[in-house]
Specification:
This protein is of the alpha/beta class. It contains 10 helices and 12 strands. An 8-stranded parallel β-barrel has the order 1-4-5-6-7-10-11-12, surrounded by 5 helices. The longest helix has 11 residues. It is globular, with a radius of gyration of 17 Å.
């Protein structure tokens, strides 16, 4: 297996980076460009920027933020929020994003993922799936717009997206969002359902949580937002902690080792 990735997530509401807690509370953090620059300096393997209100507000994730952020970034940037057309995907990639992720539009427009993957290549198109653990303990695909779970079984939806040509899948645990109590290892186990890389998001609170999920599953990487935006040089510290027990991640550059 390729080296696992430690990924910094930036949730935004328009121009402002926020801390997300259970998809219900959003505390202001500051300028997302400043956060992206910090992640880059702290040697994140990738940055994911997600505008969590763009779709509901009928707009696209900010091209200005992407332009400003990518002027000096060395770290690959994946962005999403409000994407509905192939032209918008092209616009975001031209603005400096390395990849885009699709969530709501993948469900609403059956042909969209296939067309985007054909036009730009599967490596540029990522699927974001929100997942909620319901009262029975079952993991359900979640619609953040209606705040309800959907009937499609999670693994069926993952396989369908893979068949449509998606290059990677991000599974975001809504129930773990902002809790910092650890990744949902049962959700991580679903990575084996598909051949494309699967990234896990939601719940990270320390380096040990990354160690646990890398040891227990086949995920290709794990994301954190609150942990990294509220801890000085947290990505570097997490990498040191993970490297102490496993060589499964990219080593730190000499300047941070």
């Amino acid at each position: 297996m390729a080296l696992r990735r430690i990924i910094g997530t930036i949730f935004t509401r328009g121009p402002l980076a926020v801390q997300s807690i259970a998809f219900k509370r959003h505390l202001p953090v500051g300028d997302p460009v400043v956060v992206a620059e910090a992640y880059d300096q702290w040697q994140a393997d990738e940055i994911v920027l997600a505008d969590i209100t763009a779709t509901a507000e009928g707009r696209l994730v900010s091209r200005d933020i992407i332009n400003r952020a990518t002027r000096h970034l060395r770290t690959p940037l994946t962005v999403g929020g409000g994407i509905q057309t192939i032209a918008q995907v092209e616009d975001l990639l031209r603005s400096g994003a390395d990849r885009v992720f699709i969530n709501t539009t993948a469900r609403e427009k059956e042909q969209f993922v296939h067309d985007a993957a054909q036009f730009f290549g599967s490596q540029c198109i990522v699927a974001w799936i929100d997942v909620l653990r319901d009262a029975s303990g079952a993991l359900r695909v979640y619609d953040h717009l209606t705040r309800s779970t959907l009937g499609t079984p999670l693994e069926d939806w993952m396989r369908e997206l893979e068949q449509r040509g998606i290059g990677e899948i991000i599974l975001h645990a809504v129930h773990a969002d902002g809790q910092m109590q650890g990744f949902d290892l049962k959700l991580a186990a679903h990575a084996s359902a598909v051949a494309v890389p699967v990234i896990l998001s939601g719940g990270a609170g320390c380096a040990q949580h990354f160690q646990e999920v890398f040891s227990a599953s086949q995920i290709a990487g794990a994301c954190a937002g609150n942990l990294f935006t509220h801890s000085e040089c947290a990505i570097t510290a997490v990498k040191r902690g993970v490297l102490a027990s496993t060589p499964a991640i990219r080593p730190l550059h000499a300047s941070a080792a």
